[in-house]
Amino acid sequence: VQLQASGGGSVQAGGSLRLSCAASGSIFSINAMGWYRQAAGKQRELVATITSDGSTNYADSVKGRFTISRDNAKNMAYLQMNNLKPEDTAVYYCILAPDYSDYEYGSWGQGTLVTVSS
Predict the structure, then answer these.
(1) Alpha-carbon distance 83 to 52, whole Å?
(2) pLDDT tens-digit readout, 95-104
(3) What is the pLDDT of residues 22-42, one digit of tens each?
(4) Helix H or strand E encompassing 32
(5) Residue 40 in 3-state DSSP?
(6) If you write DSSP's letter for every residue of 69-105 in order, what string do you get?
(7) How far apart are CA 115 and CA 28, in angstroms?
(8) Each residue of 84-117: pLDDT tens digit?
């Protein structure tokens, strides 16, 4: 499977961005999708996940601000990011993995950079 993330960019604090992840292959609908991020000098963080049946989970740091969704017909996953903060600055990676597995060991796309200025 191949994953292609897009939608990163530079915004001011309080702004919004929508990340997209396009997945190739026929296994998309039976797997979870998720987003990790890694800021410079910091550990990788699992930001949000959505299982094949639509159950979502979020890191405490983004709850209420970020929304993950998926469109199985299009093999797409999305991360809507609202009320962005400078601490959200990071490279964001989309992943695909079996539901409730160790997502870090799933398939990874290339990163897309999000920069939030104060």
Answers:
(1) 27
(2) 999 998 889 8
(3) 998 767 778 999 999 999 999
(4) strand 32-38
(5) coil
(6) EEETTTTEEEEEE-S--GGG-EEEEEEEESTTS-GGG
(7) 29
(8) 999 999 999 999 999 988 898 999 999 999 999 9
Cα(111)–Cα(49) distance, integer angstroms: 16
32 neighbors 97 (Cβ within 8 angstroms): yes
Which of 37, 40, 27 minimizes the C-alpha distance to 96? 27
Can you tell me the distance from the alpha carbon of 72 to that of 77, in angstroms, rounded to the nearest whole number? 8
Cα angle at 105 between 103 and 109, to 5 degrees?
85
Using DSSP's 3-state secondary structure scheme, residue 30 falls into helix
DSSP 3-state assignment of 11? Answer: strand
